[in-house]
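Q: I'm teaching a short session on how sequence maps to structure, and I want students to see two examples side by side rather than one. Could you give me a first protein with its sequence written out and its structure tokens following it? Keep the formatting plain so it prints cleanly on a handout.
A: Of course. Example one:
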Amino acid sequence: MSTIVPVVFIVLGVLAVAEPVVAGLAVAILVGWALVFAGVAHLIGAFAGRGFGRTAWQIVVGVVYLFCGAYFLTHPLIGLGTLTLLLAAVLFVEAAFELIVWGATRALPGGGWRLFNAIVTGLLAVLIWVHWPSTSVWAIGTLVGVNLIMTGFSRLMLVSAARRIAG
């Protein structure tokens, strides 16, 4: 196993954290293209001949996906703002579920970590939400960068462990 891929992940992560706006815009453009391709797939699937209702629904969904994808591609900064707001909502939901799970498992060893995770996730959601739309400039790019760095380090540790085991 090579160390090249983990190092590339780490370098890309550092670049994303250093330039979160660029990384965030790249994510918004990627999402835009994904929506365009999904819209095309829905439109192609609409003509599979499975009844008028299914065909009409697939066409509507395909057009919506195409419209949203085109909007993200032509207005990536607004798309980034939308993604950031969606991220805040997802983090709110995650924090709520973590709090519920903590309530059910708080007597178990290490249960406090669930509460800690719920609090940190909730605070991050509040931070993004309260300061939106200005958080759009850094949130997505920074989180993608941190994820790339962590992925790179975990893969690097895996390569190191595999080499030690192999002898």
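Q: Perfect. Now a second example for contrast.
A: Example two:
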Amino acid sequence: MTDPIADLLARIRNGILSRKSVIDIPASRMKRAIVEILKEEGFVNSVTESKDGPQGVISLTLRWDGQNRSAISGLRRVSTPGQRRYVHADALPKVRGGLGTAIVSTSKGIMTDRKARKERVGGEVICEVW
């Protein structure tokens, strides 16, 4: 697998399209940080991790509303292995006019665009969620 973050986003997108409630993803520290941000922002209900196999598995419980619609309307990978996208703190993107979240990898760790703007740090824009 050349792009594990794109694989994570594709698994979430496919789980939403197939109306799954729980999605299992191979674990890594980067993926764990991204799904924790999704949990903090209210896009998923819960995140659990088990030590199955050599790598471990992260289980996401997706969030659905009363009309059986997902809390996640869209996911987009911004920075790819072939073309990285770095931005300064002044140029951090606002996703859907502030209704979505950009996940940014900074020197202070992986965080949302709002937190990076508040701490005045830039970095690599990993993905956008709305």
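Q: What should students look for in example two?
A: Point them to this: The chain has two domains: 4-62, 75-129. Also worth mentioning: The longest helix spans residues 4-17.
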